[in-house]
Amino acid sequence: MKRALSKSVAAGILIAAAVLSLRVASQESRSPVAPRREVVEAVVREAYDKFRNDTNGKNADYIPYLAQVDSKLFGVAIVTTDNQVLTLGDVNYSFSIQSISKVFTLALAMDELGPDKVFQQIGSEPTGRAFNSVLAVVDMPTHTGNPLVNAGAIATTSLISGKDEDEKWNKILTFYGKIAGDKLTLIDEVYKSEAATNAGNKALAMLLAKYDRIYADPFESVDIYTKQCSVGVTAVQLARMGATLANNGKNPATGEQVIQSEDVPHILATMAMAGLYDGSGGWAWHVGLPAKSGVGGGIVAIAPGKGAIAVFAPPLDEAGNSVKAQEVIEYVARKLNYNLYSPSSVGLK
Ligand code: GLN
Q: What is the per-residue pLDDT across 137-175, written as a single tens digit (0 to 9) for each?
């Protein structure tokens, strides 16, 4: 009797402990600073209405396909670290990820080689010049500049291992898919349009070869890079990719640790310095969030520990950054107190 009792008491204690540790675990995995849904919803709606009729900017046209994308398309998506999803507008339209892909190939390169090697082989200095600048390659001591301008990005793609081009490309595409928590595919028309007009990127790759700063066949690397830029994403998929970074490399929807947590600060720092090219300084001044733009019209911004916001609107400013995406993100970040450089963003009043 005594033994039976103590057994059941022990079992009870065990169950209680298990329940408690489950609770603690689920509390631990929830970010204490993930924003409240009603607040975010209201602010996103305000921003959407405020900027939806802004007609400033112009679609990219150096890639012929991009010139004919409907410039009125406009979608906003937020994914939080506790996997709340908020969407408004054209969030199911699949647009080309373009330069935003550079962030995720950087993550894969670090996964394979570790951050120190990637830093040595690519670097992380802002160029202060256009994203496709030849002069930056000539002038900068590293030549590659950083992983988020074309030259540095092509060199970063060249670091990805594989027995042939197909294996490298499939590895990149699968990796992006895990970060998005969805199967992603190439938009063939974008790829063909860009591959037919990317003499400038081939020139950058050959110039890097002259300086010994590209680590595989230059033309193969440009081709894989062109494919990675032609991957289609919706605003929601892009926001989830950003939320994976905000959540320390763990996809908040699938729970998979896709990017190593120790790589995340390096990625976000690079985004903060060069994510909007020669618009990065102004962006840091006004918004204070690591972000990345693409000439397809997307921008994703990361609020570490909180979530990510992705906006898609094709018309771009002079630097190649979506006008409406910048406006919406700036508005939302200010209202929700996301600015990373403001101590109040982590609760200090
Ligand atoms: N694929 C584009 C290019 O190489 C990417 C540029 C961008 O989005 N800024 O020019």
A: 999 999 999 999 999 999 999 999 999 999 999 999 999
Burial 143-171 (b: 16+ CB within 10 A, else e): bbbbbbbbbbbbbbbbbbeeeebeebbeb
Please report the DSSP string for 235-290 in residue order.
HHHHHHHHHHHHTTTB-TTT--B-S-GGGHHHHHHHHHHHTTGGGHHHHHHHT-S-
Give the whole-angstrom CA distance, residue 85 versus residue 81: 10
Say which residue the tokens 């699949």 belong to: 94
> Could you tell me if the CB of 321 is within 6 A of ligand 1?
no
Atom of ligand 1 nearest to the CA of 153: 4
Cα 91 from Cα 105, distance rounded (Å):
24
Q: Is pLDDT at 2 greater than 50 in this prediction?
A: no
Distance CA 270, CA 312 (A): 22
Whether residue 251 contacts residue 258, with contact meaning beta carbons closer than 8 Å, is answered with yes
Region 127-131: mean pLDDT is: 93
Residue from 59, 229, 326 whose mutation best tests the ligand 1 pocket (most atoms within 8 A of CB): 229
147 and 299 Cβ atoms separated by less than 8 Å: no
Residue 229 Cβ contacting ligand 1 at under 6 Å:
yes
Q: For position 289, what pLDDT does the model report?
A: 98
The 3-state DSSP class for residue 180 equals helix
Could you read off the pLDDT of 168-206 as tens digits, one per residue? 999 999 999 999 999 999 999 999 999 999 999 999 999
- The pLDDT score that the predictor gives to residue 122 is 98
For residue 133, the one-letter residue type is S
Query: CB within 8 A of 315, min separation 6: which ones?
Result: 55, 56, 57, 58, 59, 71, 297, 322, 323, 324
Q: How many CB atoms lie within 10 A of CB 200?
A: 14
- Residues in the chain, how many? 349
Predicted local confidence at residue 282, as pLDDT: 96
pTM: predicted TM-score of the whole model, two decimal places = 0.90
